[in-house]
Amino acid sequence: MPDKCLFKQLVRHYYFILFIVIRGISMTVKISPLAPKTFAKLPPIKGVRLQTTEAGIKYKGRTDLLFIIFDEAANVAGVFTRSKCPSAPVDHCRKILSHGVARGVVINSGNANAFTGKNGIATTEATAKAAADCLGSKPQEIYLASTGVIGEPMDASRFTGLLPEMAKNAKEDKWLDAVKAIMTTDTFPKLATRTIDFDGHPVIINGIAKGAGMIAPNMGTMLSFIVTDAPVDAAILQEILSDKVRDTFNAITVDSDTSTSDTLLLFATGTANKEIKSLTQKNDPRYQALAEGVYEILHELSLQVVTDGEGAHHLIEVRVEGATTNEAAKTIARSIANSPLVKTAVAGEDANWGRVVMAVGKAGVEADRDRLAIWFGPHRLAVDGERDPHYSEEEASNYMKGTHIVIKADIGLGNGCATIWSCDLTKEYVEINGDYRS
Amino acid sequence: MPDKCLFKQLVRHYYFILFIVIRGISMTVKISPLAPKTFAKLPPIKGVRLQTTEAGIKYKGRTDLLFIIFDEAANVAGVFTRSKCPSAPVDHCRKILSHGVARGVVINSGNANAFTGKNGIATTEATAKAAADCLGSKPQEIYLASTGVIGEPMDASRFTGLLPEMAKNAKEDKWLDAVKAIMTTDTFPKLATRTIDFDGHPVIINGIAKGAGMIAPNMGTMLSFIVTDAPVDAAILQEILSDKVRDTFNAITVDSDTSTSDTLLLFATGTANKEIKSLTQKNDPRYQALAEGVYEILHELSLQVVTDGEGAHHLIEVRVEGATTNEAAKTIARSIANSPLVKTAVAGEDANWGRVVMAVGKAGVEADRDRLAIWFGPHRLAVDGERDPHYSEEEASNYMKGTHIVIKADIGLGNGCATIWSCDLTKEYVEINGDYRS
Q1: Can you tell me which residues bind substrate (chains A, B) (predicted)?
Q2: Which of A127, A189, A272, A402 has the most CB atoms at less than 10 Å from its CB?
Q3: Number of structural domains chain B divides into
Q4: Of A289, A307, A325, which marks where a domain is finished?
Q5: What residues are paired with B421 via a beta bridge?
Q6: What is the CA B171 to chain-centroid distance, rounded?
Q7: How far is A352 from chain B (nearest CA, A)?
Q8: For residue B4, is pLDDT > 80?
C-alpha cells in the first residue's frame, strides 16, 4: 500500500516543518544577542552513546531526559556545588565518586530534585538502579544530574521505564541532541571540542554544558559533562579538573546565586586507540597536553554560559591587578562583577566608573583609593584617586556600545591578579526570573 | 500701590500652582507604591535653623544644597561607610569627629565628591571654611555630606558664595524643605520625629534621611541626620548611635552595594530647656529613654529607605531563626535578602521558596538541609528538608500579592536570630540604574 506510506511521510514532514518554523520563531525572539555565530560540531567518541527523549517531567513538546552510556567502564572525576543544601543527585554523585568508574549518566531538566527529602533520595536510587539494569552494571557506576525547579517531588517511575528503549537506540553521533535535552532557560546549546596528540594518536575531548541563571559557582557550573577517549586514571582526571576549574567555571558569575545542583564531571573512556598507554602519573609529558585541552574546553564552555546569562546583552570581563594577593584580587573582581549597579550601568552602556570605585571599596579587602586606576577597555578613566585628566567621555561611551566590555582595576598595592567573567543585568533578567516557575 | 502688590501676588500664586501641578504629575508617575500615606511633620527645634537653595550642582529647577545651623554648639556622634574608597566629605567628618562639637552641616545632592582626589579635599576644606566664616566658628565644627555621582570634580566656589545668604534666611521650621534638597533618586522624603520625657520636660528627636540605591550599609545608610534638643554628652550620643544602628540602618539592603558616602550623624543641642541637666552617664535612667527614642527614629527612617528602594514594589522582611549564632543568622538573612533570584521572585509575586533554600545553601555558614523550615508570612512551605505536606500553593500565591512580604527561615540548629529588610528587584531598578548618569 504505497499510498498509505506516502500519506504517512507527508504527515511526518508536515509536523517536522511545523516544528522547525515554531522553533525558528521562538529562537529569533529569545536567543541571546551574545550567542556564538556557529556551534562546535562534536565528533563521535568510540563507545560513548547518547540518547534523549521527551519524558514530560515539566516541559511539553521537547526533550528533557538524556542518557549517556559508556559501553566500557570510563574513569571519572567530578566537582560539585559548595551549597549547604545540595540536591539529591549531587549527594549521590559525591557518594559514588570514590569508586572512580562510570558506565552511564542520567540527566533530566525541568526538576532539580533538590530539597525533596526522602522522596528525592528514593528517586536517585531508583534511577541509578534502573539505568544500571539496562547496562548490566552497578548503581554506583551511574552518575545523575537534575536541573530545574527546586522543591518539587520528582517521581522516578515517570522516566525509569524509558531507559531500556533509550539504551537500545543510543548513538555515538548525538552530542547536539544531548545538550538540547538539558537546557532550561538557556537560549543556545553549549558545546566545545578539541583534538590533541597522545603518543602520535589523536584523542578527542568533547564537552557540553547548561547554564543561564543561578550562576555563581563556588566550584563548577550548573551542569557540564566532559568526555575524552584518552586513557587516564581517575586520580589524574580529578587533579586536572580541580586545577582547571579555578579559572574557568569558578571565575564566572551571572547573578551571584549558587545553585544547589552544580555538577561538573570529566570522563575518560580510553577508547581512542588500544595502543595508547594509560596516563597514570603527573610527570608524564602528556599530562600538560591533556590538562591544557581540558582547560580550553572548560574556558570555552564557561564563557558560553556567561554569554547566555539570563537576559544578557553584554559580556563583562573584570580584570583586577595590583592587589595584595591573588585571593584579594578575586574578591575585588567578584565584588565588581556581582555589583547590580555596575551590571546595570553596562546594560545602559554607561561608562560609570564611579560604580567600579564603589565596588572596589565595598569588597572588604585591602585597597587604597589614592592608588586606584580604572580602565574600560583601552580607556583609562581614573588614576591616582581621581578622574584621569586625559579621559574622553565620548571615547569611553563609544567603547560601551560594544558587546564585550573589559573592566580593569589596578589596585596599586601588590602583584595579585584575577579575572572574573560576568554579564550585564537587564530588564529581561527580571522578566525571566519573575515568571520562571509559573 | 495696591494693584502692583495684587499683581505680584497673582504671579507668585501662578508659579506656586504650576509647581504643585507639575510636582503632582511627576509624583503620580514616579512615587514608590510603598510610600507612606502621610509624612511626619517635624516640629521646630530651638536653635536649629535650616535653609535650602538651588545651587545647580547637577539638577536644574530644584533645591540641591542644605545648610543646617546650630546657633549654639551641638554635641555630635557619627557612623560612616566602611568602604575602602570613602568620599572626601566622609574623610572630613571622620577627622573632626573627635572634637565632638558641631556648629553647622552643609549637604549637597547631585555630586558625591567621591574619588575626586586633591580637588575633593580642597572642596571640603573650602566649604567648611566658608560655612565657618558665616557662623563665626571653626572649620572643624562644620560637618559635610555629599550624595550623587562619583568621580566628577566638584568646585566649591559653585556654592560657597551662597552660604552667607542661606545662613541669614535659615529658619527653624524648614525640615521638609531640608530633606527634599538632599534627595537623588528618592521618590519621597524620609522624615521621623518623637517627643520623649526628660526630667518632666518634653524633648524632641527629629530625623531625616535619603536613600534609594547603593544601599547595603555596612554601617549606616546613605545620608541621615538626627537632631535632639536634649542635652547629651558626645560620648553618650556615640554609644547610643553605634548600638542602635546595628538593627536599623545596618539591617537593610536594597542592592547589596555599599556607598562611598554613607553618613549618619546624631546631634544634641541641649536647647529644650535650660533646667534639664546634661546626660553624661550610661547609668542615668534617662539613657534608656533616649536610646529607645533614637532607635525608633532610626528604625522608621531605615524602613522608609527600603520602601523607597529603587524600583521597589514589595517590602521584604527576612527573619532567620535557629542559626548557630546571631552573626550566622545575619549572614543567612543577608544572603536571602540580597539574592537576585529571591528578589525577582517576590517582584513576580511567586512563592518560590526553592530560591530561599538556594540562598540559605550559598550563605556559607552552617546549615542542615534536612532541618530547614521556610515560611512566607503565616504559610509554612517547607519543613524537614522537603515541601510541607500541608502546603497550599493557592494560599501562598495569595499572600505574595501583598506589599509587605515576610520570609522566615528556621535553620533548626541553635538560637541565633536576625532580621534584614530589603525590597524586590524589578525592571524599574534596571531602568533607573541604566540611565542614572546620563
Answers
A1: 184, 210, 221, 310, 433, 438
A2: A127
A3: 2
A4: A307
A5: B252, B317
A6: 23
A7: 7
A8: no
